[in-house]
């Protein structure tokens, strides 16, 4: 069931993607400039710490509450670990340098004390192996260690402390220090030399930069008052190989404590960037399983997803209710394979492109063996809605047979692509003949134009009235009227708008296809619905277009639309001036006048005032006289839209099949 080509594609894709994932490592980075409750799932609060007042409160912040601020401690850690170093293959040999991640941690702190508080104990930026928290870490232990743990190498803690309380091992009560597994710092620097008071009586914010270079193993700490530029020299600089002290995967965050003396330990902002070490360096280590396992899992996932997709597709396509119904009908169009259509159109050669519509591109195709020429409509995938709806609709379209409708020869639905195969129309679209551009424009003779309109009218009458399941064309315009080798007109693409997009018509595509503009009835602008009346409106636009040789949306003599100009000529009794100049005198006055009046009547702003398809056909064939058209174009009045007049088409599969023999509708003849 699985074509090998697709499997190979999937494997290739997986192999292609995996190295990209593992090599293209971006540093892990985040930036918080205000903290709120929603960040509880990003940060882990330990001890008495909380996220409150827009800041990380590492120790209690409830100044006014009736709780003691003394002797408490806490931590807030980013809840995901970072890989900070790499086991190197030759680490035993000792030649190759250790791979250690560089990182930058920049934070804004506010260490507040009220007048009368001495300030204590301190706050620290900490790297820790897990999210645990030692009890009894208040006072001098800074939330980092406690009496029993202090100095234990298994702590795997490295911290930068900002200490506001002097202990016997400290230089003063206002210093910075580098701590390794102990609050007894390996290096301390008094900040008083830098004009910095960590917890001043007048509150100040300080920005602190902790920068670690994994190559040089140098840790630099810069500190200055908020808003001041980063100083050129660090307050503390120490070489430390983190690999010797911290866990390979470590957490980062803040710890703080109070003692007899208290202060508020707030982190207001935090930016962190940690270099991402590639996992693939683990090839020779114990992590070899990851290197092999991950692509295999990805591969399996891709295969599974693909199989599921394929199975679902098959299930839809094989639905006996739809395809079966299509196939079982007598004289049904055939199903083509995508490969055959691709071959017939020379791989959808741009040179064989016949046109482009709202729903896709049409190509000419040739089946040399059978010596058949076809038009292949390839739908753009985004436009596809429910495929069952579409096929159900096609089954209705399939049953329509009329010599002035373009015949559907077959369809293809494979790999999510949909194509329809129509009879090839050697003379292209009416649109091309009227406005074919520089090369194409050959003036259509008058009798030819008249006959084309008669053909279209008979097709419209068939769609609206003669078939059991009344079909609304929905997209009547010159580019949908095709001409066969004898210049017989054939209406194409009927019903497709609905089939493709359920309730919507191609009105929805006005932006992309301004050409549809003049063909849309005013009421359809409002409702977005197509009705028989709106089809008649479109037909009226085509009639005026064919007689005048102008696009419906052409601005002439100050009129916004062709129809308004013709209406003004009608009012002034010189309507024949509207006839296409390129015809010269080669047209029949009576017929031209009749068609222009018909065109105006069909363009009536009120749907129910427009003639019906049957009357249109009778007028064109001469069994009914030209319609009466008022001198002024009536206004469009929304309120009088009446539901009975606007008989929407509805497709119900239960109606008896509509197989009308050819010719029954052409009760007229034109020479
Ligand atoms: C919390 O902060 C995030 C940004 O980090 C923001 O998107 C969100 O709206 C904030 N929530 C509240 C309640 O302020
Ligand atoms: C505040 O706490 C003290 C003892 O810690 C207690 O005596 C006092 O009643 C408390 N006041 C209030 C309003 O809870
Ligand atoms: C840290 O900052 C320094 C200078 O500001 C920069 O050169 C370095 O690339 C940064 N490192 C990381 C890991 O972002
Ligand atoms: C220090 O912390 C550890 C871990 O939480 C705990 O088991 C131990 O009892 C603590 N020691 C003191 C003196 O509180
Ligand atoms: C830091 O100090 C501890 C004991 O205080 C000592 O064991 C360790 O070697 C020192 N580390 C450095 C990098 O100085
Ligand atoms: C500290 O920074 C915060 C946030 O930028 C600001 O709201 C506050 O006013 C600052 N405090 C001082 C004393 O500058
Ligand atoms: C670390 O230091 C080396 C040597 O000074 C430098 O080339 C490199 O860019 C630094 N790395 C980072 C991330 O700052």
TrEMBL record:
<dbReference type="InterPro" id="IPR000719">
    <property type="entry name" value="Prot_kinase_dom"/>
</dbReference>
<feature type="domain" description="Protein kinase">
    <location>
        <begin position="348"/>
        <end position="637"/>
    </location>
</feature>
<dbReference type="Pfam" id="PF00139">
    <property type="entry name" value="Lectin_legB"/>
</dbReference>
<dbReference type="Pfam" id="PF00069">
    <property type="entry name" value="Pkinase"/>
</dbReference>
<keyword id="KW-0418">Kinase</keyword>
<dbReference type="InterPro" id="IPR001220">
    <property type="entry name" value="Legume_lectin_dom"/>
</dbReference>
<keyword id="KW-0472">Membrane</keyword>
<feature type="binding site">
    <location>
        <position position="378"/>
    </location>
    <ligand>
        <name>ATP</name>
    </ligand>
</feature>
<dbReference type="InterPro" id="IPR011009">
    <property type="entry name" value="Kinase-like_dom_sf"/>
</dbReference>
<dbReference type="InterPro" id="IPR017441">
    <property type="entry name" value="Protein_kinase_ATP_BS"/>
</dbReference>
<keyword id="KW-0067">ATP-binding</keyword>
<keyword id="KW-0547">Nucleotide-binding</keyword>
<feature type="compositionally biased region" description="Polar residues">
    <location>
        <begin position="661"/>
        <end position="671"/>
    </location>
</feature>
<keyword id="KW-0732">Signal</keyword>
<feature type="signal peptide">
    <location>
        <begin position="1"/>
        <end position="24"/>
    </location>
</feature>
<comment type="similarity">
    <text>In the C-terminal section; belongs to the protein kinase superfamily. Ser/Thr protein kinase family.</text>
</comment>
<dbReference type="InterPro" id="IPR013320">
    <property type="entry name" value="ConA-like_dom_sf"/>
</dbReference>
<dbReference type="InterPro" id="IPR008271">
    <property type="entry name" value="Ser/Thr_kinase_AS"/>
</dbReference>
<keyword id="KW-0812">Transmembrane</keyword>
<dbReference type="InterPro" id="IPR050528">
    <property type="entry name" value="L-type_Lectin-RKs"/>
</dbReference>
<comment type="similarity">
    <text>In the N-terminal section; belongs to the leguminous lectin family.</text>
</comment>
<keyword id="KW-0808">Transferase</keyword>
<dbReference type="GO" id="GO:0005524">
    <property type="term" value="F:ATP binding"/>
</dbReference>
<feature type="region of interest" description="Disordered">
    <location>
        <begin position="649"/>
        <end position="671"/>
    </location>
</feature>
<dbReference type="GO" id="GO:0004672">
    <property type="term" value="F:protein kinase activity"/>
</dbReference>
<dbReference type="GO" id="GO:0030246">
    <property type="term" value="F:carbohydrate binding"/>
</dbReference>
<feature type="transmembrane region" description="Helical">
    <location>
        <begin position="288"/>
        <end position="312"/>
    </location>
</feature>
<dbReference type="GO" id="GO:0016020">
    <property type="term" value="C:membrane"/>
</dbReference>
<keyword id="KW-0430">Lectin</keyword>
<protein>
    <recommendedName>
        <fullName>Protein kinase domain-containing protein</fullName>
    </recommendedName>
</protein>
<keyword id="KW-1133">Transmembrane helix</keyword>
């Amino acid at each position: 069931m699985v074509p090998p080509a697709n499997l190979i594609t999937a494997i290739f894709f997986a192999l292609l993607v995996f190295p990209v994932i593992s090599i293209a490592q971006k540093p892990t980075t985040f930036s918080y400039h205000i903290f709120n409750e929603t960040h509880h799932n990003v940060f882990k609060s330990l001890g008495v710490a909380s996220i409150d007042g827009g800041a990380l409160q590492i120790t209690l912040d409830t100044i006014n509450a009736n709780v003691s601020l003394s002797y408490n401690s806490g931590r807030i850690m980013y809840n995901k670990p970072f890989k900070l170093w790499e086991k190197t293959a030759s680490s035993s040999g000792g030649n190759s340098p250790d791979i250690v991640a560089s990182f930058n941690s920049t934070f804004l702190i506010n260490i507040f004390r009220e007048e009368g508080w001495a300030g204590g104990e301190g706050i620290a930026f900490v790297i820790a192996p897990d999210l645990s928290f030692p009890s009894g870490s208040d006072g001098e232990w800074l939330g980092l260690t406690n009496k029993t743990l202090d100095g234990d190498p298994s702590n795997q803690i490295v911290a930068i402390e900002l200490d506001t309380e002097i202990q016997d091992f400290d230089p003063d009560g206002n210093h910075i220090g580098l701590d390794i597994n102990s609050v007894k710092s390996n290096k301390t620097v008094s900040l008083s030399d830098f004009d910095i008071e960590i917890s001043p009586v007048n509150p100040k914010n300080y920005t602190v930069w902790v920068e670690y270079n994994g190559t040089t193993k140098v840790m630099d700490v810069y500190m200055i008052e908020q808003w001041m530029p980063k100083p050129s020299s660090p307050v503390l600089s120490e070489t430390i190989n983190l690999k010797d002290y911290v866990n390979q995967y470590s957490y980062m965050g803040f710890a703080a404590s109070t003692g007899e003396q208290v202060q508020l330990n707030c982190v207001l902002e935090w930016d962190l960037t940690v270099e991402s070490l590639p996992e693939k360096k683990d090839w020779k280590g114990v992590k070899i399983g990851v290197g092999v396992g991950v692509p295999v899992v990805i591969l399996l996932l891709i295969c599974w997803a693909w199989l599921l997709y394929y199975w679902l597709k098959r299930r839809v396509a094989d639905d006996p209710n739809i395809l079966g119904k299509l196939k079982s009908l007598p004289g049904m169009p055939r199903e083509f394979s995508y490969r055959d259509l691709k071959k017939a159109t020379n791989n959808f050669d741009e040179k064989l492109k016949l046109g482009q519509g709202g729903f896709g591109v049409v190509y000419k195709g040739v089946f040399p063996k059978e010596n058949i020429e076809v038009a292949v409509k390839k739908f753009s995938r985004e436009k596809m809605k429910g495929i069952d709806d579409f096929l159900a609709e096609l089954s209705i379209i399939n049953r329509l047979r009329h010599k002035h409708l373009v015949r559907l020869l077959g369809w293809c639905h494979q790999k999510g692509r949909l194509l329809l195969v129509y009879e090839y129309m050697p003379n292209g679209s009416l649109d091309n003949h009227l406005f074919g551009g520089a090369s194409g424009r050959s003036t259509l003779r008058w009798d030819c134009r008249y006959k084309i309109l008669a053909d279209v009218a008979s097709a419209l009458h068939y769609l609206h009235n003669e078939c059991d399941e009344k079909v609304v064309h929905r997209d009547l315009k010159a580019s949908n009227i095709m001409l066969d080798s004898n210049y017989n007109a054939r209406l194409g693409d009927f019903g497709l708008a609905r089939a493709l997009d359920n309730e919507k018509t191609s009105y929805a595509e006005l932006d992309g296809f301004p050409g549809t503009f003049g063909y849309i009835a005013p009421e359809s602008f409002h409702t977005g619905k197509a009705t028989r009346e709106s089809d008649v409106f479109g037909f009226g636009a085509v009639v005026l277009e064919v007689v005048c040789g102008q696009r419906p949306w052409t601005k002439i003599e100050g009129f916004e639309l062709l129809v308004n100009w013709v209406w003004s000529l009608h009012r002034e009794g010189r309507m024949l001036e509207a006839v296409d100049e390129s015809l010269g005198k080669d047209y029949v006055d009576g017929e031209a006048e009749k068609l222009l009046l018909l065109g105006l009547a069909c363009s009536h702003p009120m749907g129910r005032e427009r003639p019906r398809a049957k009357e249109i056909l009778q007028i064109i064939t001469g069994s009914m006289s030209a319609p009466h058209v008022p001198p002024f174009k009536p206004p469009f009045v929304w309120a009088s839209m009446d539901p009975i007049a606007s008989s929407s088409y509805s497709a119900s599969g239960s109606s008896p099949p509509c197989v009308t023999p050819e010719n029954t509708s052409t009760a007229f003849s034109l020479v």
